[in-house]
Design brief:
Blueprint: E1 14-18, E2 25-31, E3 34-39, H1 42-59, H2 81-87
Antiparallel strand pairs: 1-2, 2-3
Organism: Methylomonas rapida
Domain DUF6316: 4-56
Pfam family, one: DUF6316
């Protein structure tokens, strides 16, 4: 029997879905912390994702992984006041 290598694949973090109440398409991005949105455009969702990533880098939140790529003891969540306030503007 042939041995197959497991391949990692990356899915797009930006996605849209129809809001059944408004009939409009809404954009979201996904992260380990959950789903964020809705945003009016794909461009806005992409910008918010980039801001979120920069926020995580700034606060040292590595999503529970250490620098060697091994899983850390537990996910460390810190308040995201700067990010949340920016999103509301």
């Amino acid at each position: 029997m042939e041995k197959r290598e497991a391949k990692m694949f990356r899915t797009d973090r930006i996605f849209c879905q129809n809001n059944p109440q408004t009939g409009r398409m809404e954009w979201f991005f996904s992260a380990r912390e959950g789903y964020f949105g809705p945003f009016a455009t794909k461009e806005k969702a992409t910008q918010e994702l980039n801001d979120f990533i920069q926020h995580c880098i700034k606060t040292g939140d590595d999503g529970g992984r250490n620098k060697e790529g091994k899983k850390g003891e537990k996910l460390r969540l810190v308040p995201m006041h700067d990010f949340a306030l920016k999103r509301d503007k």
